[in-house]
């Protein structure tokens, strides 16, 4: 709670203003507005097809907005290309894992680190001493990021040879290597059992603090969301359903009816 | 006889230079081209015209050939890659580009049309070709092991994810296209000064197909594979010239055999290294069990 009141005095890190997206006759997102203060960890929840991932795609520039505006760090990012938005400090993971499958685990992270690399093509052609030095540094840094998510021992395995859960962790490491200020996690615990998902929640909390991130999390595991998020935004059929703290959301009759289920509160208490 | 073999090797290595360029474009960046003979032709004509009509130094002419082909690569890549054409549509665009270039060469006064340019000085020798091939392979290897090369590979693997890693897809693809065009240009320049005669009908889509076949059969994401494949594809039909028309059958058979037994290509996503050779010999010793 404290961080909310402190942060409210500063300008938000991310602000969505009446963001809408229509695909033909279908409105995937309609008038979505919320803001995220620096250092906040916010949850975005709702039933399948509610438009959560669409919201991510609108923030990261994958889709063009039909109307509305996205403001990141005081700058209007609406209409920019995804790679430009990434360079401004927004990183994301994908719901349906999108690693560079055939590459090694460490190379996956190296590609992300390249985002901030500046040596020139000419020196790369000739592999000058400076390039060799930078390449070595990139590799060492990549191992550090792998270490942060506990994948160091897998560094030279092929990315798609790892089990599902580890691939998701690699996606997180790869996103962190972009050195973002805002991290968007799209169902990082999908397909995990309760123990694994709680362990992942702990990892997300640790990384969120260590890298001083602002994090927006889409997740269906309610225990993860409730444990991590100070603020939750609920969507349904592309619309805002509710917004508030974990406690408020858990007792909101609309949310219980549309998403969590009438039995949710009782199950939590028993 | 030895001149005969050095002739085959020279032609093979000229093809290797163009194929390595295409390997960067197709094997590492994931785009297909069916018109790379056009870059080869532009390089050949640029270098030949410069040395023939203007008496320019051969090595400068080679650099000019690379620059001219690279520039044309930029000109056709800018609109087609900017439009984010799907990779198969892009391949069709290059097919048209290849044919258009040939028709242009047949009708320009400076290229002397279909008659071609006879009497180009014979500056290209096997040592020169070897040196150029070595440098091009070295630069291509360096490229694939740099941030620019990784960006190309990321685009090939998953361009949505690549974009989310801060990779500018358009620039990455354009960079690879210009590089491969320049390699084709150098190879063309060497070719013109090796045969001392060029005419537009040498640079047909058959030649483009040969480059692409060498890259695919050699293996995507590999440099050493396409190098081997280019040498094999040039030398086998030449050596079999005594078998007359059957040599083309042998060429086709070779392609089919590679597709059946090595669908990933000779060296798909790998390179020949000392460890690889040792491992390979070890496996041969154990009776070839994979």
Describe the structure.
- The complex is a heterodimer of chains A (270) and B (290).
- Chain A has helices at 2-7, 52-59, 82-88, 105-113, 121-126, 129-148, 164-176, 194-210, 222-228, 246-250, 253-260, 264-269, and strands at residues 14-23, 26-36, 41-45, 67-72, 75-76, 90-92, 182-186, 214-218, 231-236, 239-244.
- Chain A is an alpha/beta fold and 270 residues long.
- Chain B has 290 residues and is mainly alpha-helical.
- Chain B has one domain (2-204).
- Helix content of chain B is 73%, strand content 1%.
- Chain B has helices at residues 2-28, 36-53, 58-82, 87-107, 126-144, 147-157, 159-163, 169-195, 205-218, 224-239, 246-261, 274-285, and strands at residues 117-118, 197-198.
- The model of chain B has no long low-confidence stretch (mean pLDDT 90).
- Chain A binds chain B through residues 60, 62, 81-83, 86-87, 91-92, 94, 98-103, 107, 110-112, 114-115, 117, 119, 121, 124-127, 131, 135, 138, 174, 178, and chain B through 139, 142-143, 145-151, 153-154, 157-158, 160-169, 175, 221, 269.
Structural class of chain B: mainly alpha
Overall helicity of chain A: 40-55%
The chain-level structural class of chain A is alpha/beta
Order of helices and strands of chain A: HEEEHEEHEHHHHEHEHEEHHH
Biggest interface and residues each: A-B, 34 and 27 residues
Order of helices and strands of chain B: HHHHEHHHHEHHHH
Helix content of chain B: over 70%
* SS strand fraction of chain A: 15-25%
Oligomeric status of the shown chains? heterodimer
| Overall average pLDDT of chain B | 90
Largest sheet of chain B: 2 strands, antiparallel
Number of strands of chain A: 10
| Beta strands of chain B, count | 2
In angstroms, what separates the terminal alpha carbons of chain B? 39 Å
In order across it, which strands form the biggest sheet of chain B? 1-2
Helical run tally of chain B: 12
Uncertain parts of chain B? none
Mean pLDDT of chain A: 91
Distance between the termini of chain A: 26 Å
* Share in β-strands of chain B: under 5%
Low-confidence stretches of chain A: 1-8
């Amino acid at each position: 709670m404290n961080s909310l009141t402190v942060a409210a005095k500063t300008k938000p890190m991310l602000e969505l203003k009446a963001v809408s997206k229509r695909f033909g006759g279908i409105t995937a997102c309609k008038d979505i507005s919320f803001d995220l203060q620096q250092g906040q960890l916010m949850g975005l929840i709702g039933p399948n097809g509610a438009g959560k991932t669409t919201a991510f795609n609108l923030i990261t520039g994958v889709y063009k907005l039909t109307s509305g505006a996205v403001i990141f760090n005081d700058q209007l990012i609406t209409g920019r290309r995804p790679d430009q938005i990434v360079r401004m400090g927004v990183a994301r993971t994908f719901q349906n894992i999108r690693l560079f499958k055939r590459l090694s685990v460490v190379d996956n992270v190296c590609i992300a680190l390249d985002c901030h690399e500046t040596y020139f093509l000419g020196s790369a052609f000739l592999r000058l001493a400076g390039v060799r030095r930078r390449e070595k540094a990139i590799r060492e840094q990549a191992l550090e990021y792998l270490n942060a998510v506990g994948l160091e021992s897998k560094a030279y395995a092929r990315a798609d040879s790892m089990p599902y859960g580890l691939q998701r962790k690699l996606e997180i490491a790869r996103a962190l290597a972009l050195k973002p200020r805002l991290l968007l996690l799209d169902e990082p615990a999908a397909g995990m059992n309760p123990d694994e998902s709680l362990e992942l929640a702990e990892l997300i909390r640790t990384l969120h603090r260590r890298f001083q991130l602002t994090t927006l999390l889409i997740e269906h595991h309610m225990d993860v969301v409730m444990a991590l998020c100070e603020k939750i935004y609920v969507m349904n059929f592309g619309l805002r359903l509710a917004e508030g703290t974990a406690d408020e959301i858990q007792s909101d009759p609309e949310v219980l009816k549309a998403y969590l289920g009438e039995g949710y509160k009782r199950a939590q208490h028993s | 006889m030895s001149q005969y073999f050095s002739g085959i090797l020279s032609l093979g290595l000229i093809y290797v230079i163009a194929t390595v360029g295409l390997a960067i474009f197709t094997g590492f960046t994931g785009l297909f081209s069916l018109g790379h003979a056009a870059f080869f032709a532009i390089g050949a004509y640029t270098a030949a015209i410069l040395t023939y009509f203007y008496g320019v130094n051969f090595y400068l002419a080679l650099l000019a050939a690379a620059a001219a082909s690279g520039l044309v690569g930029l000109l056709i890549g800018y609109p087609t890659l900017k439009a984010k054409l799907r990779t198969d549509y892009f391949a069709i665009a290059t097919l048209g580009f290849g044919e258009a270039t040939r028709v242009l060469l047949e009708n320009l006064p400076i290229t002397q049309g279909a008659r071609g340019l006879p009497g180009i000085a014979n500056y290209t020798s096997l040592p020169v070709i070897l040196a150029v091939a070595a440098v091009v392979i070295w630069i291509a290897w360096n490229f694939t092991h740099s941030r620019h090369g990784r960006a190309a590979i990321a685009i090939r693997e998953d361009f949505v994810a690549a974009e989310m890693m801060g990779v500018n897809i358009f620039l990455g693809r354009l960079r690879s296209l210009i590089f491969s065009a320049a390699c084709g240009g150098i190879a063309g320049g060497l070719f013109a000064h090796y045969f001392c005669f060029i005419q537009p009908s040498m640079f047909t889509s058959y030649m483009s197909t040969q480059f692409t076949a060498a890259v695919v059969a050699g293996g995507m994401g590999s440099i050493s594979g396409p190098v081997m494949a280019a040498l094999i594809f040039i030398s086998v039909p030449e050596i079999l010239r005594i078998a007359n028309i059957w040599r083309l059958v042998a060429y086709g058979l070779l392609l089919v055999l590679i597709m059946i037994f090595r669908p990933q290509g000779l060296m798909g996503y790998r390179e020949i290294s000392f460890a690889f050779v040792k491992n390979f010999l070890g496996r041969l010793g154990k009776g070839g069990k994979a």
